[in-house]
Amino acid sequence: MGAGEEERVNWLIEFFGDPANWSGPDGIPLRLLEHLLFSVAALALAALVAIPLGLWIGHTGRGSLFIVVAANLARALPTLGLVVLIVMLLGTASVWPVLIPLVALAVPAILVNTFEGIRGVDPELRDAAYGMGLSGRQVLGRVLVPVALPLILLGLRLAAIQIVATAAVAAYTGLGGLGRYIIDGLAIRDYPTVLGGSVLIVLFALAAQFLFVMAERVAVSPGVSRRVKVR
Amino acid sequence: MITFDGVTKRYADGTVAVDDLHLEAPTGEITVFVGPSGCGKTTSLRMINRMIDATHGTISLDGVDVRTIDPPTLRRGIGYVIQQAGLFPHRTIVDNIATVPHLLGWSRKKARAHALELLDRVGLAPELAGRYPFQLSGGQQQRVGVARALAADPPVLLMDEPFSAVDPVVRTSLQDELLRLQAELNKTIVFVTHDIDEAIKLGDRVAVLRVGGRLAQVAAPAALLSAPADEFVAEFLGRDRGIRRLSFVSDASLRLRPDLTVPASSPVSEAAGRAASAQSPWLAVVDAGDRPLGWVNPAELPRDGTLEGVRLLPYGTFVHGRDSLRTALDAALLSPSGCAIAVAEDGGAVVGVATRESLDEALALAASDVGNGDPANG
Ligand SMILES: Nc1ncnc2c1ncn2[C@@H]1O[C@H](COP(=O)(O)OP(=O)(O)O)[C@@H](O)[C@H]1O
Ligand SMILES: [Mg+2]
Predict the structure, then answer these.
(1) Which terminus of chain B is more solvent-facing, meaning fewer CB atoms within 10 Å of its CB: N or C?
(2) CATH hierarchy code of domain B252-365
(3) pLDDT for A189-217, tens place per residue?
(4) Is residue A90 part of a domain?
(5) Structure ipTM over 0.95, yes or no
């Protein structure tokens, strides 16, 4: 281990070992909670918009063009630029300057994957479902969604990754979250804090991933995931 | 009864898939739609359960215009089986079968119990109930598809090339299974296939369609084989029409001789005497239970000992009262004697022997029927 690496390990020990970092408004628990709240709120809002829209467009086939536009627009959006722009427009008095860009970032991934999931269901299966006498709504709810669920969850997971990673920008607006450690730390050249903050953000993202993998195990039918215990 | 009355389907792009179709699918019978690819079979079938709506004309179920019934309600009363089975991948086999009962609001317990019963009915082991569709073979999936279609006991069953995607051996067993089920259930079945042999095997009535969605002929299979309406139908029926038609002629017209059998325990000399008095060189050797063992020509054997241990010649059998003239003829051609052995359905004991003379008479009688309407169904 080189001297530089040793120094960084010491930074981490310094950051995580400091009791002052574990309490108060600047403490890890509170920052973590803030980060979690932004992330969950942004994901929930994005899902609320994108899932019904994706299901509807995928099921009816109407408005498919919208999907293409949304997907391309999303790739072109600079998140930081958007945050700054919205802060300029709305000020920093509310949470919207953070939430709007995060939601805007998350919607396309969910929308496109939900749409693709529903569209991608074997037309024979759709046909059989109607042929059995299921209504349009029942076909969607009882057949298309369960079969498309892996893709819908993938969309949510991709959105979550982006949100968690980008939620750090919330710090620019003075709204807190784990990004504060990076910004505040950089401002005063407090590298242990910068490093500690980045490690926390990475761990947070990994935890979110893990949650989604678990959710997939629970929610997706073994008949769809083809993961069945040998009996 | 399903009635097509002047039914036409023109798709949005102008394709006329079905053109002025008049047809009846009688209650309790299998009506087969057959014809080359693109002739409008699927379109015709799907207009019955309103997966597609007709452009002109009326389709009625026992006199009720299907257009007056809302599609989900209509479809819950009609079984529907498609080529790839279309099973719900996220549901277990038993839940797949229980789909329609569930929609109809049966209790969960009743629906599952009934589904298990159907699983057995279509010849699947109860262990499969908890599996998912991807864990089943194509043939097993098709059986589940049939069970699912039958689950709410609908009077009508629509089947669109249900056995086309499985290998020939499995296909034959699925066809036999369907005929066995139909003998018990007496559903009104409309069956679509592009395979004329399948149509002839399964259909009580066969409707031949030509491209452009026009009905070329509708008739019982035997009548179709003996009297195709035109060149197109004749060509579509293919070769060996005469021989294939014999499948529909019962063996009732075959005169059987009871005096051409001999027990294996008999001395050769006695066998020779029996052959001489029967004026036949050939005798069918039978075991103690009267089951056939093979043919002998006693005149060619050394005159000592019994028939035990003598080299017997190959034989062919047909089941008396069940098999067709075609099977009997086939059995005769499998033996150097040129005779076919008729056996009882139960136990397989020999009932008698159809000689070349009696086959000849029966064939002549069958041939004389051509043009006089349908021969007796076997
Ligand atoms: N949705 C559709 N739109 C336009 N043409 C169609 C459609 N479905 C089928 N067709 C056309 O109608 C004709 C009959 O099709 P179909 O009923 O599927 O035939 P078959 O089942 O006998 O092969 C074909 O020419 C086919 O291309
Ligand atoms: Mg077809």
Answers:
(1) N
(2) 3.10.580.10
(3) 888 888 998 899 889 989 999 999 999 99
(4) yes
(5) no
Q: For residues B330 and B339, what is the distance between their CA atoms, to the nearest angstrom?
A: 10
Most confident of A18-22, A63-67, B36-40, B82-86: B36-40
B188, B79 Cβ separation under 8 angstroms? no
Distances (CA, A) of A55 to A49, A62, A116, B241: 11, 11, 9, 54
B78-102 burial, b for 16+ CB within 10 Å, e for fewer? bbbbbbbbbbbbbbbbbbbbbbbbb
- CATH code at A61? 1.10.3720.10
Task: Please check whether residue B179 is in contact with residue B7, taking contact to mean a CB–CB distance below 8 angstroms.
Answer: no
Give, in degrees to the nearest 5, the angle at Cα B361 between B356 and B366.
120
Core vs surface per residue B333-365: b (16+ CB within 10 A) or e: eebebebbbbbeeeeeebbbbbbeebbeebbee
What residue segments make up the domains of chain B, in order of their start? 2-248, 252-365
Distance, CA of A43 to CA of A163 (rounded, Å): 7
A187-223 exposure pattern, b = at least 16 Cβ within 10 A, e = fewer: eeebebbbbbbbbbbeebbeebeeebeeebeeebbbb
Residue A162 lies in a domain: yes
Q: What is the pLDDT of residue A1?
A: 53
CA dihedral A157, A79, A189, A24 (to 10 degrees): -60
Ligand 1 atom nearest to B33, measured from its CA? 22
CATH code assigned to B2-248: 3.40.50.300
Residue B371: predicted pLDDT: 65
Burial A154-168 (b: 16+ CB within 10 A, else e): bbbbbbbbbbbbbbb
Atom of ligand 1 nearest to the CA of B161: 21
Question: Which of A17-31, A48-62, B152-166 is the least confident region?
Answer: A17-31
pLDDT tens per residue across span B154-172: 999 999 999 998 899 999 9
Confidence at A46, pLDDT banded by 50, 70, 90:
very high
Residue of chain A with shortest Cα separation from B46: A131
Q: Please provide the DSSP assignment of A170-206 as one string.
A: GGGGT--STHHHHHHHHHTT-HHHHHHHHHHHHHHHH
Q: CB of B13 closer than 6 A to ligand 1?
A: yes
Domain that holds residue A128: 32-178
* Ligand 1 pocket test target in B39, B51, B158, B214 with most atoms within 8 Å of CB: B39
Predicted pLDDT of residue B374: 47
From chain B, pick out residues whose CB is under 8 angstroms from the CB of A132: 75-76, 80, 99-100, 103, 148
Q: Do A124 and B103 touch (CB under 8 A)?
A: no
Separation in Å, CA B40 to CA B9, B18, B80, B165: 9, 6, 17, 19
Predicted local distance difference test score (pLDDT) of residue A3: 67
Name the residue at shortest CA distance from atom 11 of ligand 1.
Answer: B17
Instruction: Work out the burial of residue A37: count CB atoms within 10 Å of its CB; fewer than 13 is exposed, 13-18 middle, 19 or more buried.
Output: middle
Average pLDDT, chain B: 92
A163 found inside a domain: yes
